[in-house]
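User: I'm writing a short methods note and want a consistent example. For Transcription termination/antitermination protein NusA, I'll paste the sequence; you return only the C-alpha cells, no commentary, since I'll be parsing the reply automatically.
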Amino acid sequence: MNSAELIASFADFAREKNIDRPTMIKILEDVFRTMIRKKYGTDENFDVIINPDNGDLEMFRTREIVDDDSEDIWDYDKVPLAEARKIEKDFEVGEEVVEEVKLEDFGRRIVQTARQTLIQKVKDMEKEILYIRYKDQVGELLSVEVYQVLGREIICLDAQGNELSLPRDQQIPRDRFKKGDSTKAVVHKVEMNNGTPKITLSRTSPVFLERLFEQEIPEVTDGLIMVRRVVREPGERAKVAVESYDDRIDPVGACVGMKGSRIHTIVREMNNENIDVINFTDNIELLIARALSPAKVSRMSIHKDEKRVSAWLKPDQISLAIGKGGQNIKLAGKLVGMEIDVFRETEGPVDEDDVELNEFSDEIDQWVLDEFHRVGLDTAKSVLAMGREDLVRRTELEEETIDEVLDVLRQEFE
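Assistant:
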C-alpha cells in the first residue's frame, strides 16, 4: 500500500465519522511520527507534510554534516562527511543534508500497523466527540428509536445512529416498548467507562416533564410562561407550578388548553400520568393551598424553622388532600419544600372531654400516631368515631395494631 492509498482510505473513513480536516491532519501526523520514532529513535529532525485531500505525503530528514573523525557523528541530527558525499559529492562540513523518507522505507509490517492505528484513533476520537457532545446536552429532550429491548435496559438510537441506554429504573412503570418504536426521553447522565461513553436517558426525571411542557406549549417555548417547579411520582401523579410573565395570560389555562387539548398530549406521552398544573406564587400560604388541590384548606400554621406546615381541612376534604396512597400530600410537600400535616377541622363547639392523640405517646408508638395524623385524625374521639373498618381501609396499619389502639382509647373514656 502506497502513501496515497493509505491516506485516502483513512480520509474517507474519517469523513464518514465527521472528523474535521485539521483533526484529521493531526491524527495522520501523529501516526507517521510514531512510525519515524520506531525506525529512527526520534522524530525531532523530521518534517511531515500531509495533504489528505489528494493523498500527498512528504517526510524529510534533516542532518548537519560533521567531520568523519568528529565525536558527534553518532548524534541523531548529525551525519559524517563521507556518508553525506554518497548523496551529493560536493557537500562540505557544516552544511545540512535534507533527505526524503519514503513510506516504503518503513516496511510492510509497520505500514499495516499504522493503518490499524489510524482507524483506532478515529474510533477513539469519535467516542470523545460523542462524550463531549452529550455532556453538554444533559437535561435536553431527545426523540429516539428503540433498537433493542433487554432485561435491565432498552438500547435506543439517536438521529446519528449512536447507541443510548434507557435503564429500567428510568422508565415509567407502564412503559412497554418493542423494536422500532419511537419515544422521547431526556439525557440524564453521561459517563466515560473504560474509554467508551455511556449516555443514560430518563423518562422518570422531573426534567422530562418540564421539557415536554417547553415543547408542547407555545407560551412556555416563547418564554411567556415559566415552569417554576416540577415534582413527580412517575407513572402516577405529577404537580407542575407555572408562572406567567404577561398579566393577560392565564398560565394554568394556557398549559391545559381548550378542553385539556394541550395537557392531553403530554399525558399520553407519559402513559396517562395525572398532571396537576397550579399557578405559582411567592405567597407561601397560597402556594401550599394550591399545592394541596383539589382539597380546600380551611386554615394553616407554618413553622418555617422546622420546615413544617399544619393544615386544617373539613372532614370531607381530608382524603382529597392526602390522595391515593398519600401521593397528593407527598407531592404537595415536595413542591413547597416542607412537610405537610393535615388535621380535621372541628365543627361546632369543642369537646372539652376529647383528648389529643399525642397525649397517648407513652402507650402508642409515635409512628402509629403519625399514621392517624396522616389521615386527618388528631384526637381520641375522632379515631373512635371513624370505626374499625374505616380505619383498616384508610390507614396502612395492621388490624391487630388498630385493635390495640382502640382498646387504649376506649379505656380513656371508661
